[in-house]
Amino acid sequence: MERDGPGDDEPTSGGLGSGDDSTGGYQPERLCYDGERVVERTPLGSGWAAVTTHRVLAYQPTVDGRRFEAIDRPNVSGVTVDAAGERRLLGWGLRAAVYGLAGFGGGIALRAMDLQSTLTVDAGAEAAPVGSVLAVTDALASALALLTTLLLVGGVGLVVGALGLLARYLRTRRTALVVERFGDDPVRLSAARSDGERAATALSAALER
Q1: Entry pTM
Q2: How far apart, in whole angstroms, are the C-alpha atoms of residue 185 and residue 205?
Q3: Is residue 153 part of a domain?
Q4: Is the pLDDT of residue 18 over 80?
Q5: What is the pLDDT of residue 25?
Q6: Domain range holding 180?
């Protein structure tokens, strides 16, 4: 089907006109498919968000990253405002911290038990067998030493990674208009609290029509 706008990709200037408003001429009516019409439009920061008969559209010309979002209307489960940040980063950070602390603790416990020295002493005792048994105990001692090192280094690495993820999560904790989607991650749109709440109210009402 031929359409007037770029759909799910970021809009381009060709054929849209320069316009004299803050959105640079990218109006929701100009981005609709044939037969699609705008049901509701609301300001969103320096741009706008809109509900059409087919989709939820949003354009923010001053944000970093994607400026234009288009979500098929049947996939939208709701529109809310929150400042929770990227929950995936929080989940990954917490899991990495738990695994890292567990690994580091296991390494400390193995080092405190000093099983390598115990195996070496037992193998060198007068009553101890020689030959292949001694080789096995030496291999076990080496394996325990390697495991201890891996647990300590891996644990520290995971904790450092967890701190990095949690730092990134904290940077994403800013107020956003959130378009929830069935079976997919939500789309977060940067917005001030009052601006986002007004947009959420208007878009939610339009989606119920």
Answers
A1: 0.54
A2: 22
A3: yes
A4: no
A5: 67
A6: 28-83+174-207
